[in-house]
Design brief:
The chain is α+β, with helices and mostly antiparallel strands. The protein has five helices and eight strands.
Length: about 150
């Protein structure tokens, strides 16, 4: 099965999911913008509308979609609009790109439960939207942390 998340710089997000049991593969890329086949340089202009994202292939017999959402929520700040840490721009937005109605239902409930928990002082700004075309990023971005000894 497939899941797609935007939570800031895709290098860190991919590394987190790669370390998660039940993940079969990950790819970093761009999603949710107007320009077909964008490059990293184009996305960095903050003019294409794309988010940096990670597409995750997972085995639902080993990890649930709910568990993937827990990884997502626990590893970024979902209350900062278009920003994660020092990275600022629409491409760094917090987003869950759902692949079917079941994922949408689960993601919305997960977000509501987190909002009700009081864990965050500010409102959660994470968007939950249907997954449009995912454009795989350039090869040098794939498994970046592992390639550079950060993982």
């Amino acid at each position: 099965m497939k899941a797609t998340f935007g939570a800031g710089c895709f290098w860190h997000v991919e590394d987190l999911f790669n370390k998660t049991k039940g993940i079969k593969s990950t790819h970093v890329g761009y999603i949710g913008g107007q320009l077909p086949n964008p490059t990293y340089e184009e996305v960095c202009t903050d003019q294409t509308g794309h988010a940096e994202a990670v597409e995750v292939e997972f085995d639902p017999d080993e990890i649930s979609y709910e568990d993937l959402l827990d990884v997502f929520w626990n590893n970024h700040n979902p209350t900062t609009l278009n920003r994660q840490g020092p990275d600022v721009g629409h491409q760094y937005r917090s987003a869950i790109f759902v692949h079917d109605e079941e994922q949408k239902k689960i993601a919305e409930k997960s977000k509501q439960d987190l909002e009700k928990s009081g864990r965050f002082e500010n409102p959660i700004v994470t968007e939950i939207v249907p997954a449009p075309t995912f454009y795989k990023a350039e090869e040098y971005h794939q498994k970046y942390f592992k390639k550079h000894g950060f993982s």
